[in-house]
Amino acid sequence: MSAPAPTPEEAAAEADALKRAGAVLTIDLAAIVENWRTLSALAAPAECAAVVKADAYGLGIDRVAPALWRAGALTFFVAHLNEGIRLRALLPDAVIYVLNGLMPGTGPAFAAAKLRPVLGSVPEIAEWSEFCRATGKPLPAALHVDTGMERLGLSLDDAVRLSDSRRLLGFEPSLLMSHLACADTPGHPLTGRQLSLFTDIARRFPGIPASLANSAGTLSGRDFRFDLVRPGIFLYGGIAVANVPPLRPVVRLDARILQVREVERGATVGYGAAQRVKRASRIATVSIGYADGLFRAAGSTDAKAGAEAVVAGRRCPLVGRVSMDLATIDVTSLPEPAVERGAMATFLGEGIGVDDLAARAGTIGYEVLTSLGGRYLRRYVGG
User: Fold this and answer.
1) What is the Cβ-side half-sphere exposure of residue 194, based on CA atoms within 13 angstroms?
2) Dihedral angle at the C-alpha atoms of 58, 225, 34, 364, nearest 10 degrees?
3) Domain 251-381, what architecture?
């Protein structure tokens, strides 16, 4: 269901906000929903959950999670307890798992918000069991087994011992899970090893739903999907692995051109004189910088090309360093009337995806999304 059309007053307020905005971030909720439905159909008969940690990967959990719930998502994953409490206020009936587990003394907060901790250590399991026994309620929780990430999770030996004594637990194990380390690298030998180890462990916990696949793992084959898949980056338009099913881009980022200036051949642009122009140039200065999530590393120097932006339908390269509030673009190739003060330059959208920008900054699409700053005018469409 699409959002209702804005009232004349709302439309006027948005137009006024747009005039004041240095940059605009547009988030397509309908695209997120369609991406979830695509993955859900691919994963069936496994359930398709939604990972909405880090404020739905920077895009706004208060708008993203309800849209996914309305689309049919029933199970959600966050990282922190406070994220879970916030999500519970939005989705009273959803199943919500907290990936970072049980902090000491937080059992009452989990119970009050009907959240499920992901337990990945013997002390966590002991504390949750003791809390559940003390309250007389065998509350649900996930068990996390480390199969090769070497980060969070029970050791294989601890998991085997737990499987032999699970009837003594004071709580209900509602999910058995592990996390793939290299599924976004096709053919990596660790992925097959993790699948084998997790399959063996899952056999020791009959009757408990199992989950191994993240976004990339969902594409790795039926054997990886088990009972529940946990896509994250694919929902938000990032591409964690090649040959993905057709997924829609989700974000568009437009920044206002503040000034266009003529620069003589041989002049340097920006801090540190990091790039010298090789011809007489026209340089557009744009209202976006690293404080907004356009990484400093996305800038250009004499030694390397940086990111690009689309101006008047044509890709134009960044020139010089990205500063806190500003970036500079070479618009020399455009006819002068096409670039003027107040026009927009597109940094995401018009064929530039989050992974394209990430590659130019030497990082990953996850970091691009989660670093999008708070100064943008945020517009939500669809959903």
Assistant:
1) 26
2) 40
3) Beta Barrel (2.40)
pLDDT at 19 over 60: yes
The C-alpha atoms of residue 106 and residue 118 are separated, in whole angstroms, by 13
Q: What are phi and psi of 157, to 5 degrees?
A: -65, -45
DSSP per-residue letters across 7-72: PHHHHHHHHHHHHH-SEEEEEEHHHHHHHHHHHHHHHTTSEE-EE-HHHHHTT-HHHHHHHHHHHT
Task: Give bridge partners of residue 314 from the DSSP assignment.
Answer: 311
Q: What is the DSSP string of 310-379?
A: EETTEEEEB-S---SS-EEEE-TTS-GGG--TT-EEEEEBTTB-HHHHHHHHTS-HHHHHHT--SSSEEE
Question: Which of the residues are catalytic?
Answer: 53, 271
**Closest alpha carbon to 378 in 292, 320, 261, 302:** 292
User: Two tokens at 25?
Assistant: 């971030």
Q: For residues 91 and 73, give the distance between their C-alpha atoms in angstroms, rounded to a whole number.
A: 11
- Decide if 362 contacts 328 (C-beta within 8 A): no
- Is the Cβ–Cβ distance between 340 and 260 less than 8 Å? yes
Which amino acid is it at 148?
G
pTM: 0.94
pLDDT tens digits, residue range 320-350? 999 999 999 999 999 988 899 999 999 999 9
**One-letter amino acid of 318:** L
Q: Where are the domains of the chain?
A: 29-236, 251-381
**284 DSSP assignment:** E
Strand ranges of the sheet holding 95-98, from the earlier edge strand across to the other edge: 50-51, 75-78, 95-98, 116-119, 140-144, 172-177, 210-211
Other CB atoms within a 10 A radius of the CB of residue 258 amount to: 15
**CA distance linking residue 116 with residue 75, whole number of Å:** 11
CA distance 231 to 30: 17
What is the residue type of 324? M
Class of domain 29-236 (CATH, top level): alpha beta
Q: What per-residue confidence (pLDDT) applies to 1?
A: 45
